[in-house]
């Protein structure tokens, strides 16, 4: 069963002072992500990775093509019921505390007071922010804000995660924490779609990896085939299998 | 629709903590002091001057919300991408707009209530200082009705802020459009009235007259919500007029919110 499905999606943005020019962001992108799969999207800056995730979140509408989650069109009511989304640069309300954000998340979901307390405590403990739960977000470092946003993302224990650069701005400990959370959700059977620049992390946790270049999905590989391909090639230097494959693919596309 | 109230509450809390409320408290204390002291200079018009200053301060305090808070809280949500945090929780865009409006209405309400209390304290202080005959004609109802209408006027402006934030991509543009709405809303009625006057000695082309009339119908007539003069002179209000004004305000707000939702649902949030 496909959880994420996009079929021949095209997207362009109007740019310029008078919005008279159009810049292509995505061209004919199609892929499916099966249940319990971790699908990573990698690519250079401006390749269209985040746009895909935003289309799945219905923040951006594609010009052409169909996009669905759990076989429901993304624009339909309730299609995002069990999704946790972490944006690229998470922004929370600076004058509110993480606890207040989490309370908001619980109230929107209609949880009881008892359940709310339990969920908030669990989320805070998971990201190790219990001690600063009542501190306004504006006093947080970038890494703490990222962890706070992650707590908000996993608050309702979603079955589907969409993570846009979840490791950005994190120190090694924070990065490990995020990787552990993704792994935990993967083990629990969640379906995860995420994009990242940190190829070693992508390699560690993804079942399949899609490579984007200039708005096109140029290649999709499984983590296993990547290892075999890497073993069969001779000169790699200090590159990991994914780095090697990614650089080769992108160079081929450029030339 | 269950998410409207949580959004309103989060908007209200975020707005309160932006320290604007502290500014309003200080301004209200100054208002008490200023109104009590200065009204003594106007011999026979002590009450009129006091009510006038106090109601002007209430209107000014209310205007803090659309100009300083609403645009920050709405366009800021889109610019800083805080909106993703909200919409990712399976919240519809219409609930977002309605929740924001309700939160802003709560903020406007609390500011106006604080200033209203300050006004009543100021009037009470004045009765202790100045001779009693100055306050013989004083009744509370014109003051309350005038404040209520000022509140409605600010809500109308808040709803236009929502519309501008839904169609524009920058807070600067939204501020500019809101400012234009405010200026037009306060002056267009006078302009049309002047055009309708005979023997003004000014030749006005029919096209300009038609444009001014169209602007009068498109933009909110904010001057209509300004009832300071009636309240200052303790003139009785005609209930039919107040009802009509209330209906006009509520209808205008509904149309603005409908349009804001219409445009906001169709826009990309890249």
Structure classification of chain B: mainly alpha
- The count of β-strands of chain B is 0
What can be said about the biggest beta sheet of chain B?
none
Mean pLDDT of chain A: 88
Question: Can you list the strand order of the major beta sheet of chain A?
Answer: 6-7-8-3-9-10
Count of DSSP-assigned helices of chain B: 10
Draw up the topology in text:
The complex is a heterodimer of chains A (255) and B (270).
Chain A: E1 2-15, E2 21-34, E3 38-43, H1 49-56, E4 64-69, E5 72-73, E6 83-86, H2 98-109, H3 113-126, H4 142-154, E7 160-164, H5 172-187, E8 191-195, H6 199-205, E9 208-213, E10 216-222, H7 223-232, H8 241-254
Parallel strand pairs in A: 3-8, 3-9, 6-7, 7-8
Antiparallel strand pairs in A: 1-2, 1-4, 4-5, 9-10
Chain B: H1 4-16, H2 20-39, H3 46-79, H4 82-87, H5 93-129, H6 140-167, H7 171-196, H8 206-218, H9 228-232, H10 239-266
Helix pairs in contact in B: 1-5, 2-3, 2-5, 3-5, 3-6, 3-7, 5-6, 5-10, 6-7, 6-10, 7-8
What can you tell me about this protein's structure?
The complex is a heterodimer of chains A (255) and B (270). In chain A, 37% of the residues lie in helices and 27% in strands. In chain A, the strands form two sheets. Chain A has a six-stranded mixed beta sheet with strand order 6-7-8-3-9-10, sandwiched between helices. Chain A has eight helices and ten strands. By secondary structure, chain A is of the alpha/beta class. By secondary structure, chain B is mainly alpha-helical. Chain B has one domain (4-266). Chain B contains ten helices and no strands. The longest helix of chain B has 37 residues, at 93-129. The two termini of chain B are 24 Å apart. The chains are: A alpha/beta (255), B mainly alpha (270). Chains A and B meet through strand 6, helix 2 and helix 4 of A and helix 1 and helix 4 of B.
């Amino acid at each position: 069963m496909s959880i994420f499905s996009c079929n021949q999606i095209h997207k362009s943005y109007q740019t310029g002072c008078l919005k008279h020019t159009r810049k292509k962001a995505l061209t004919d992108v199609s892929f499916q992500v099966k249940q319990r799969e971790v699908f990573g999207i990698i690519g250079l800056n401006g390749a269209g990775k985040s746009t895909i995730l935003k289309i799945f979140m219905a923040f951006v509408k594609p010009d052409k093509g169909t996009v669905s989650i759990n076989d429901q069109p993304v624009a339909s009511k309730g299609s995002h019921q069990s999704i946790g989304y972490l944006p690229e640069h998470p922004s929370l309300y600076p004058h509110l505390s993480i606890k207040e954000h989490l309370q908001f998340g619980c109230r929107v979901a209609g949880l009881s007071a008892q359940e709310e307390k339990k969920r908030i405590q669990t989320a805070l403990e998971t990201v190790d922010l219990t001690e600063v739960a009542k501190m306004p977000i504006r006093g947080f470092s970038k890494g703490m804000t990222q962890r706070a946003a992650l707590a908000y993302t996993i608050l309702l224990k979603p079955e589907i995660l969409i993570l846009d650069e979840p490791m950005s701005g994190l120190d090694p400990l924070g990065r490990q924490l995020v990787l552990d959370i993704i792994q935990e959700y993967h083990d629990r059977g969640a379906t995860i779609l995420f994009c990242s620049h940190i190829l070693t992390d992508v390699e560690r946790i993804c079942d399949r990896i899609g490579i984007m270049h200039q708005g096109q999905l140029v290649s999709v590989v499984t983590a296993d085939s990547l290892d075999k391909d890497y073993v069969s090639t001779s000169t790699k230097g200090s590159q990991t299998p994914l780095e090697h494959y990614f650089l080769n693919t992108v160079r081929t596309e450029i030339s | 629709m269950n998410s409207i109230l949580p959004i309103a509450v989060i908007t209200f809390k975020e707005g309160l903590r932006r320290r604007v409320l502290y500014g309003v408290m200080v301004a209200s204390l100054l208002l008490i002091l200023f109104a009590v002291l200065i009204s003594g200079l106007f011999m026979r018009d002590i009450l009129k001057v006091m009510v006038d200053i106090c109601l002007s301060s209430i209107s000014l305090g209310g205007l803090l919300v659309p100009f300083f808070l609403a645009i920050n809280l709405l366009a800021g949500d889109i610019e800083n991408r805080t909106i993703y945090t909200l919409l990712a929780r399976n919240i519809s865009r219409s609930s977002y707009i309605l929740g924001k409006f309700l939160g802003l209405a709560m903020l406007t309400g609390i500011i106006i209530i604080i200033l209203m209390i300050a006004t009543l304290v100021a009037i009470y202080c004045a009765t202790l200082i100045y001779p009693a005959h100055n306050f013989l004609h004083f009744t509370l109802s014109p003051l309350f009705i005038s404040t209520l209408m000022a509140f409605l006027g600010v809500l109308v402006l808040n709803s236009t802020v929502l519309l501008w934030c839904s169609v524009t991509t920058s807070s600067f543009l939204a501020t500019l459009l809101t400012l234009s709405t405010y200026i037009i809303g306060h002056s267009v009625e006078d302009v049309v009235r002047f055009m309708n006057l005979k023997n003004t000695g000014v030749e006005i082309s029919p096209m300009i007259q038609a444009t001014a009339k169209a602007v009068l119908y498109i933009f909110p007539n904010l001057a209509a919500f300004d009832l300071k003069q009636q309240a200052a002179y303790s003139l009785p209000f005609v209930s039919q007029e107040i009802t009509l004004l209330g209906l006009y305000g509520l209808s205008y707000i509904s149309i603005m919110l409908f349009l804001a939702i219409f445009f906001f649902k169709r826009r990309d949030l890249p």
